Amino acid sequence: MSEPLLKRHTINAWMEDKPGVLNRVAGLFRRRNFNIESLAVGHSETPGISRMTFVAYGTDRDMRQITTQLDKLINVTRIEDVTHKPSIKRELALIKVKANSQTRAEVMQLVDIYRASIVDVNMESLIIQIVGKEDQVDSLIKLLQSFGIQEMVRTGRVAMTRGESDQAGEGTDTAVPAHQNGHH
Description:
Elements: E1 7-16, H1 21-31, E2 36-43, E3 49-58, H2 60-72, E4 76-81, E5 87-98, H3 104-113, E6 117-121, E7 125-132, H4 134-144, E8 149-154, E9 158-161, E10 175-177
Antiparallel strand pairs: 1-3, 1-4, 2-3, 4-10, 5-7, 5-8, 5-9, 6-7
């Protein structure tokens, strides 16, 4: 029998905007000895509900266990594993690069090729904003390293399934509405 396949999983979780919820989610991963590769949290389309997208390595079975455990957490209202679903996955990066009068045009050409944008300019540097697939962001960063990256921040992956929204999770085995067992 072969070893289970470890792969990157992308999971969305919706949770109430309450103190300590993010800490409980991170604690669940820590207790199960899983590393979160990236984590992005922000407001959702529903007032009072935040949407978290996290990426972690594990087997399909590991991630089913994680989503089951997430479902049991107070204040988590919905979970969706979008790993195997048609979805849009993007990342935002801000990159401050050294640029002088000799290199500025070359950096600007790379920015155009990658459909990124320059959001700040001064005599010694440029700040570049790129939104795209992670491999596209990685590729631009690799090219910009030769100019000298002074600072960088990346959001981590955010993801949304394509097509109609399936709010209740009906008809799928990966969108899990949170339990309604008295503690929610």
